[in-house]
Amino acid sequence: MLETDVCGVQFRNPLMLAAGIMGSTASSMNWILKSGAAGVISKSFSLNPHPGYKNPTTVGVDGGIINAIGLSNPGVDNFKEELKQINRVNNVVIASIYGANPEEFKELVLKVQDYVDMIELNISCPHAMEGYGASIGQDCNLSHKIVSASKDVSEVPIIAKLTPNVTDICEIAETCENAGADALSLINTLGPGMKINIDVAKPVLFNKFGGMSGRAIKPIAISNVYSVYDAVDIPIIGVGGIYTFEDVVEFIFAGARAVQIGTAVMDEGIEVFSNINDGLEKFMKDKGYSSIDEMVGLAHRED
Ligand SMILES: Cc1cc2nc3c(=O)[nH]c(=O)nc-3n(C[C@H](O)[C@H](O)[C@H](O)COP(=O)(O)O)c2cc1C
């Protein structure tokens, strides 16, 4: 009943772990998969090891958290060893990659595609170091080049992960579709945001600015999914502020075929996946829905 299809990839339920939360080791990703997620997305990684920012890298605020981790990762050659150990039987394993230009993305795709079912292009991190991150996803020309370069060499479906920090998210969504993306995920963190420590009169985060995630960003994510659903024909994966089955239903009705969960895993623990699956199944039975497919985009009907 909970099965869903995203560009030909079958998920046993619509829930996956979002990039950047508990996605750095095979053991934690296997644990998440055993706990009810149908798919996991790795922490974003790059060609070379990257130290990221110094602490503090996250801070709690009303309605969520602000983070500026700086995409720290041990580089693809080390990360590959983790990907190889994730259990892919009945699970969907997705690598999240980032680079500074089309050539780097291409090289990353070639290095990891044998170990994963899909690849998500992180072109949307708002607090990445100069030249990486959202600056790509805010530039249609560069996004087009990166998506099409990745598609050229990829044997697995390519997901482009979009930033909400643009004037018109539909423009960038259409650009990625035209460049050959098989699916879109949205949204990455919102911002930048900032929290000031009033005792020392300084921003809390080492990077000063960070990306906002958690409950407060959900209405923005929902409206972006709703708008992008009308603009493109490729499947959408919704992400941003999901804590409950009701949140998932909203995303599906807005147009998502599957969803990702990040901050709620930090706040509520890994039980969030099984709790949502149980609630979603009961909701579908109570309301007479027999598949996720028939629920996708329902909020768009005009009657
Ligand atoms: C601590 C933290 C680290 C993150 N790291 C990444 C990352 O490496 N790559 C990426 O594409 N998104 C990253 N994100 C963004 C999430 O994947 C997600 O898009 C965003 O947090 C909104 O979902 P949420 O409200 O469920 O957390 C990160 C988010 C948080 C909170």
Describe the structure.
By secondary structure, the protein is α/β, with parallel strands linked by helices. It has a single domain, classed as Alpha-Beta Barrel (TIM Barrel). It has helices at 26-34, 76-84, 102-112, 134-137, 140-153, 169-178, 218-231, 245-254, 263-268, 271-287; strands spanning 4-6, 9-11, 15-17, 39-41, 58-61, 64-67, 92-97, 118-122, 158-161, 183-186, 190-193, 196-197, 202-203, 210-213, 236-239, 256-261. Strand 15 (236-239), helix 8 and strand 16 (256-261) form a beta-alpha-beta unit. The model has no long low-confidence stretch (mean pLDDT 95). Flavin mononucleotide is lined by residues 18-21, 43-44, 58, 65, 67, 69, 71, 96, 122, 125, 161, 188-189, 213-214, 217, 239-242, 261-264.
Beta-strand level of the residues, as a percent range? 15-25%
Biggest sheet character:
8 strands, parallel, barrel
Instruction: Kindly report the spatial arrangement of strands forming the biggest sheet.
Output: 3-4-7-8-9-10-15-16
Treating each run of at least 4 consecutive H or I residues as one helix, how many helices? 10
Query: What is the domain total for the residues?
Result: 1
Q: What would CATH call the architecture?
A: Alpha-Beta Barrel
Gross geometry? globular
> What ligands are attached or bound here?
flavin mononucleotide
Mean pLDDT: 95
Q: In which range does the helix fraction lie?
A: 25-40%
Distance between the termini: 26 Å
CATH superfamily: Aldolase class I
**What integer value in Å does the Rg equal?**
18 Å
What name is given to the CATH topology? TIM Barrel
Sequence stretches where pLDDT stays below 50 over 5 or more residues: none
